[in-house]
Write a structure and sequence with these properties.
The structure holds two protein chains of two kinds.
Chain A: H1 2-28, H2 30-49, H3 57-66, H4 70-76, H5 86-115, E1 130-137, H6 140-150, E2 155-161, E3 164-171, H7 173-199, E4 201-208, E5 215-216, E6 225-228, E7 240-251, E8 257-268, H8 271-274, E9 278-283, E10 288-290, E11 293-309, E12 315-319, E13 323-324, E14 332-338, H9 347-350, E15 354-362, E16 365-368, E17 371-374, E18 383-391, H10 408-412, E19 416-425, E20 429-431, E21 437-453, H11 457-476, E22 480-488, E23 497-506, H12 515-530
Antiparallel strand pairs in A: 1-23, 2-3, 3-22, 4-6, 4-21, 5-7, 7-8, 8-9, 10-11, 11-12, 11-21, 13-14, 14-15, 15-18, 16-17, 18-19, 20-21, 22-23
Helix pairs in contact in A: 1-5, 2-5, 5-7, 7-11
Chain B: H1 8-37, H2 41-59, H3 86-116, H4 124-142, H5 151-169, H6 185-214, H7 225-231, H8 236-268, H9 277-296, H10 304-326
Helix pairs in contact in B: 1-3, 1-5, 3-4, 4-5, 4-6, 5-6, 6-8, 6-10, 8-9, 9-10
The chains are: A alpha+beta, B mainly alpha.
Chain lengths: ~525, ~350
């Protein structure tokens, strides 16, 4: 009675399990895993072919401008954010679920097989891929002992049936172990990457290399751009202050760079309260590692200095970084916005008398007619080609705007009018209609620094290494089985001799295993002949 | 042009070695192709297989080779007394030229390194040379048995195409490398990736030939030039084995190459992985080769499908080499071509 109720209550459960089992089996099958692997590879293809927001936002914008019809659809499919898209995530999550579903039973099976005794010999050893046979003098026990001795290091067992002695041996359990390690390391790798993505951050900041105040990494606001994981709220960034004393670049005559280096001073941790500055030579490939964070020299460029002398004699000097447009010649573009000194104009007029100096900077000028270009990235003969505007330069609009160019809407609305277009060499100046003088004084180098924080990356490395170790083991080690059947020969033929058969089988991809069995069989069979 | 750090004389010798290597290998290709296309080739193959069978039976207990014995020529025929057919002699000479070509390419690479006083794989021209050298050496190791000589034709074709592209369009004057490449990871990362790529080239060729062999052209009694050439290739199982063995060598090597690249990227670019186009396609290629290895141990995927996957992997590698470096702009744009 009681048993009946048990089965009745168990029935729906089993049904449910049965229903779930089929998709589970399908998901964890090798065929599905293969298809998912393909989808993963295929899904990554647009990530290589289309511009990606994570890499270069402006390139995506450019692409969208070039393909106005296609790109909204691409965007809807998240093809500009492939590696954070829902479908790419779905593929790898499914793949990893499939992996877990495949690995768990395999691990259980592997542990079980480690304790199991090798399987009995098949009836007909001569049908195995590897086979040898011979007659040897000695009792079955002696020969069995010799075979057993030859199989030292193998997992082996001896079975007796009637007069026949059979030895089963198996080796290469490490292959499966390595395989399992490889796949679990993949899981660990993914987990470590996820940790890094959640708790890590990256910030970029431009610092003029003149020993000036530099920057302190206390809050995201200190950076020009800041990308952080979901678990970073910006309140507990590792505190570090950096100032850049100078920057040196060396170039070949062809313009190719041969070295970049910035001499910096930094303080981190206890230095901040003690006020100690430590020197460091920051170079490409030699980041500063301090307190688990890294500081990189990521780029450089020029920041021209302009002095504006207003009609009343007041001066304003500004050094503003220009954006390198040509990586080879460092021809750069940018904008300097100058607010007139207080008192020169009535307060309500002041906003109409801002100056905007916008244009190109060439570290080594090369004039094609009146067109400025640069012949070298090194600063030997700097020059600027600028347009000077007066009016509302956008300093007070409150709208986010590009540091490097003026808002064309201001020109369209006639709030900003062009006064002059002029080329200036070092120290040259131009006089505007109201007597204001704009002078190009010099240019300084600026560096683009990046601070990176990734608590997961050590574990990524560890996982990757154990992954490769597992992979190597699983590819190098071969799982193989050997059987020996020892049978005493019948009286008339030869007393005291036994017939020995060897059979061998590589359990995994049978690519060229066999010498081992030959060595073993020859050792047993030949040793007798010499004895 | 950049005379400052460069030994111009050595750089010129390196260029000569490159040209000589190509000429020698073109000659080798022609000679090997003559042997492959010759009508008498079939007998040559049989005799070689006899030789192989004798060697195999005396060497090990393998029992399967007997089946290849032809009806008329017994294993007892004294091979040396009959004159070697012309086609075979040409083929052998072609193989000798292959080795000469490899040596010249090696000289080209070494002289570049000496001329620039750095590792000679700092731009695309040099990288392709190194990769092809690795592929050729892998070929010399894997295809060292005489009965594999016919396969050299199919190895030389892609190698020569790559070298020609490299020499004609991607040639870069010997020069020092840019700061981002000035790292001890340059010798490690690039050489390991090169080795992996070169070995994958052999795997890809073997898989393509496997597909040819198992296609209708590989059926016995097929008519036409292609069928005749296909008949002279080693059997499908051998081709498959070559593809598999080279892939299981190339897979971890390439994997290490990518990991070393990631370690370097952490040092040079501020992150170990950023889905730069080159990284992305390397990831794709690695996943495809992983799929190949899985397919090899999955029922129903083992033969042709697996071989196709291997070919796809090879296509991904070539795509990564050219398209990513020349068309898209990424952090790996070190081609040195504008």
């Amino acid at each position: 009675m009681s048993t009946q109720t048990v089965t009745a209550s168990a029935e729906p459960k089993r049904l449910l399990a049965g229903k779930a089992r089929r998709p589970w089996r399908a998901l964890t099958s090798m065929g599905t895993a293969l298809v998912l692997l393909f989808l993963l590879a295929l899904g990554a293809v647009p990530g290589a072919l289309l511009p990606q927001r994570s890499l270069n936002e402006s390139k995506v914008a450019q692409y969208q401008a070039d393909h106005p019809v296609l790109s909204p659809w691409l965007d809807r499919l998240q093809l500009f954010d492939v590696f954070s898209s829902f479908w790419f995530t779905a593929i790898y999550v499914l793949l990893f679920i499939s992996l877990v579903g495949c690995l768990t039973p395999r691990t259980v099976e592997h542990v079980r097989s480690l304790r199991a005794t090798p399987v009995p010999a098949p009836r007909n050893l001569s049908r195995l891929p590897r086979y040898a046979e011979g007659t040897v003098a000695g009792t079955p026990e002696e020969v069995a002992a010799r075979v057993d001795d030859g199989l030292r290091g193998w997992r082996r067992t001896t079975r007796h049936t009637d007069e026949i002695t059979e030895i089963s041996a198996e080796k290469g359990y490490l292959r499966e172990f390595g395989n399992i390690v490889f796949h679990f390391s993949l899981l660990a790798l993914l987990a470590s990457i996820a940790v890094g993505k959640l708790f890590g951050y990256e910030g970029n900041v431009i610092v003029v290399a003149d020993g000036g105040p530099g920057f302190c990494s206390a809050s995201p606001a200190a950076y020009d751009s800041f990308r952080a994981g979901n678990k970073v709220d910006g309140t507990s960034l590792y505190p570090m202050c950096v100032r850049v004393n100078d920057f040196q670049a060396r170039y070949l005559p062809s313009g190719q760079a041969t070295s970049f280096a910035a001499d910096i001073d930094y303080q981190a941790g206890a230095d901040l309260t003690a006020g100690t500055w430590r020197p460091y030579r920051l170079e490409v490939n030699h980041p500063l590692r301090v307190g688990g964070d890294r500081l990189y020299l990521q780029g450089h460029g020029y920041a021209p200095t302009f002095t504006v002398v207003f009609p009343n004699g007041q001066k304003r000097t500004q050094t503003v970084q220009f954006r390198p447009d040509n990586a080879r010649t460092l021809l750069s573009s940018g904008t300097v916005r100058v607010d007139p000194p207080a008192g020169l104009y009535p307060a309500e007029e002041r906003r109409k008398h801002q100056l905007a100096i916008t244009g190109l900077f060439a570290p080594t000028q090369q004039m094609d007619g009146k067109l400025l270009s640069s012949s070298s990235p090194a600063m030997t003969d700097p020059a600027v080609a600028i347009d000077i505007y007066r009016g509302d330069a956008g300093l007070d609009t409150g709208r986010p705007q590009s540091l490097f160019s003026i808002d064309t809407r201001l020109i369209d609305q006639k709030r900003l009018t062009k006064l002059k277009r002029v080329n200036l060499g070092l120290g040259q100046e131009v006089r505007l209609d109201d007597g204001t003088v704009v002078r190009f004084d010099a240019a300084k180098e600026f560096v683009n620094l990046q601070v990176s924080h990734d608590p997961g990356q050590v574990w990524v490395l560890v996982s990757a290494m154990s992954m490769m170790a597992g992979l190597l083991v699983s590819l190098v080690v071969r799982r193989r089985r050997v059987w020996a059947r020892i049978e005493p020969l019948q009286e008339p033929l030869g007393a005291g001799t036994v017939n020995v058969e060897f059979g061998g089988l590589a359990r995994t991809d049978n690519s060229g295993w066999g010498e081992e069995l030959d060595t073993l069989s020859q050792k047993i069979l030949n040793s007798e002949r010499t004895a | 042009m950049n005379t400052e750090h460069i030994n111009i004389g050595l750089a010129r010798y390196s260029d000569w070695a490159f040209t000589a290597s190509i000429i020698v290998m073109v000659l080798a290709l022609l000679m090997l192709a003559v042997e492959l296309a010759s009508r008498r080739g079939r007998r040559v193959e049989q005799r070689e297989l006899v030789g192989a069978a004798i060697a195999a039976t005396s060497g090990s207990a393998a029992g399967t080779v007997q089946t290849v014995l032809p009806g008329t020529d017994g294993p007892g025929v004294v091979l040396d007394t009959t004159a070697t057919p012309l086609a075979e002699r040409i083929g052998k000479a072609g193989l000798a030229l292959v080795y000469l070509g490899i040596a010249l390419l090696f000289a080209c690479i070494v002289l570049r390194g000496l001329a620039t006083a750095r590792v000679p794989w700092g731009n695309m021209y040099e990288f392709i040379n190194l990769t092809n050298f690795c592929g050729l050496v892998a070929g010399a190791v894997v295809l060292r048995k005489p009965q594999y000589r016919a396969l050299w034709v199919f190895v030389l074709v892609p190698v020569l195409i790559l070298l020609t592209i490299s020499g004609k369009w991607l040639y870069t004057n010997a020069a020092p490398v840019m700061p981002a490449l000035q790292s001890y990871w340059l010798p490690i990362h690039v050489s390991v990736v090169s080795l992996g790529s070169g070995v994958f080239l052999i795997a890809g060729v073997a898989s393509m030939l496997f597909l040819l062999k198992t296609s209708r052209y590989g059926q016995p009694g097929g008519a036409g030039t292609l069928a005749r050439i296909t008949a002279k290739l080693p059997d499908a199982q051998t081709l498959d084995r070559i593809a598999y063995r080279t892939t299981i060598f190339g897979f971890p090597v390439f994997g290490f190459g990518v990991i070393f690249g990631a370690i370097w990227a952490e040092e040079a670019w501020g992150r170990y992985w950023g889905w730069d186009p080159k990284e992305t396609v390397a990831f794709i290629a690695w996943v495809v080769y992983a799929a190949y290895l899985h397919a090899r141990s999955t029922a129903g995927w083992r033969d042709k499908k697996a071989a196709w996957i291997n070919v796809v992997g090879f296509v991904a590698m070539v795509f990564n080499l050219f398209f990513i470096n020349l068309v898209t702009v990424g952090l790996h744009s070190y081609a040195g071509v504008n």
